[in-house]
Amino acid sequence: MTALTYAAQVAPALAGCAFVQTHSAPRQRAPIPGCSPVPSRKAPLRRAALSHWPRAIQLSSWKSPSDKTQLGRRTRVVHAAAQTEAAPLDKTWSNPSGNVLTEVVPGQVWAAERPFMWNGIDVGGKMGVVRLRDGSVWVHSPVPLDNQLKAAMDQLGPVKHIVTPNYEHAGFAQQWIEAYPDAKAYACPGLRAKKPDVRYAAEIGANGSATPAEWGGEFSFAFFDCEHNPFTLKPFFNEVVYVHHPSGVLFVTDLFWNYPGKAVPPGTFIWKQGMDKVYLPFYKYFMLKRKDKFEQRLKTVLSWGFSIILPCHGTVVDEKAADVLRRHFQ
């Protein structure tokens, strides 16, 4: 099988993987112009491995993989109102601690890390969670909602905003909509026509749409409507990228992936190599239909002054995040 044939078969399923970066964890975030400054961190964020949750839901902080001596020392516990027992999740490379939620920015942003299976390979999945200034909760790219995750979410505040950022991450939106009937669900452009059974309230990204007033002016977005499936000539991902200004976090889905260079299963490692060596040139030469528009969108994103990238696939980038993104797209 030639490389081009292979690319033709796998490219539609690998469309975001042109931008893969291995990066370490950071310490500080620069203030964002025009927004309230983000409190400085006195210590690096850490991810604590938990053996159990006795009568509580525990929310841990992100941990640098190199800092093994601090494992489990900075765990933050939020007691569940129902005081129910909760067993740990299975530990995988995509959720090595088995946590229900991982705190990314203290008091503001969390991630639910879960396996994300593609043809039997765990490519990792990460849902972003933001608590807005009014106390409501914003969810980006929902993962499966089980009892443990729902209990943890309910401790953060009322879930009011559910966001599906592209075509490929719509699988669990309806489950969240049914679990949180008071929430509004938002889709990327064109998704309501593709998923008429999902009760989306609105689409965000096209035709001059703005962020909802209920989001309190805390977010900006960019619609990357500049790539297509080269075989059907139709939009493939149709991704909308979001930034949360108060925390400085950029939320990306399939536009940017950040797989670690090590500590992944053989299948995931081989898949990553295929993305780098087969998909990257395929994406550049066959899927980017408007490079000028792509560069324009990227310029908009880089102007936001974010300091952390929370990708749906791979690890968090919180050191020179804008430079990391810029280098990938050069």
Automatic annotation (TrEMBL):
It comes from the Eukaryota. Pfam families: DUF4336. Signal peptide: none annotated. InterPro entries: DUF4336, RibonucZ/Hydroxyglut_hydro. This is Metallo-beta-lactamase domain-containing protein. It comes from Klebsormidium nitens (Green alga).
